[in-house]
Amino acid sequence: MFSSTVPSLRVAAMPLVSRPGDAPHNVARIADCLALAAEKDIGLVVFPESCIGGYGGMAKLHRAELDALAEPLDGPSIRAVADAVERSGVAAGVGIIERASDGRLFNSYVVCLPDGVRHCHRKLHAFGHRRISSGDRFTVFDTAWGLRVGILIGGDNYLVENMRMTALMGATLLIAPHRSDGGVNCTDDRRTRSASMGQSLRRLLPTRAGDNGMFVVFSEGVEVDGPEQSSGAGMIIDPCGRVLAESSARDELISADLDRGLIDASAGQQWLTTRRPELYGLLTRSGHQAADFEPRSVSARGAIALSFAQVSRNRPIR
């Protein structure tokens, strides 16, 4: 599947601690991380969701506060990140509140490559603020590393269908940025719930990586004054579901080399070839009818018919 001449890839996850509302500071931190990554021969650094704006809990931000965070994709922050990528030769994935040309706002994630190409994914399930619109498409693209990259932001990763769809589009490396709610705009209950969701995702991702035969790079960020139970996290997982590197420390760059030979050899890639799409029509329907399911066999007295089989412990089943 891959040519031996294609360069190998060392990836890193960076659970960056962002300063809320201070994009220049956060971008400068990103540039410093890329310079450090270059010294470690890292080719791609994955930063957290909304790491440039710095806010995790945006639900209670006023209109003016949210507007102040938003930038176009060709705005100063992404340009500065792209310049840092060009200087260091290290690709970077960063989260931003995007202001589209039509004025709509999106929770977006931009991957800047050293050749100047940029890829943007808009969060599919944008429940963070009522003024932030949800994206309407998956994002998958080819790279010079011989890996096809997909992006799912935060809550996009909670739904199993999203990762499976990304895999069916050929992605072999999933970038999965996340962000825990924090700061003064969140109640203690919401902070705890957000931290719990992040922990649940960290437990689920190895299984999802194995199911779909893809590498996953997870990076969870928090704010400077974020809750203690949300310390940020980084995790790199291989296509067999094994964790290659992991950290729960804030601002700790973790890295791993990706062995692309594991992709074709993974059980997940083999399982993808045995799918039967004709059976999955219910996934695209909003509701189920009684006729969608096989009826139970019921006797005249209303009892459900059951059958049992007795098998000897020492005798093989025939």
From TrEMBL:
Q: What is this protein called?
A: Carbon-nitrogen hydrolase
Q: Which organism is it from?
A: Paraburkholderia dipogonis
Which ranges carry the CN hydrolase domain?
9-260
Q: Which keywords belong to this entry?
A: Hydrolase
- Spell out the molecular function terms from Gene Ontology: hydrolase activity
Q: Name one Pfam family in it.
A: CN_hydrolase
In terms of superkingdom, the source organism counts as: Bacteria
Which residues belong to the signal peptide in this entry? none
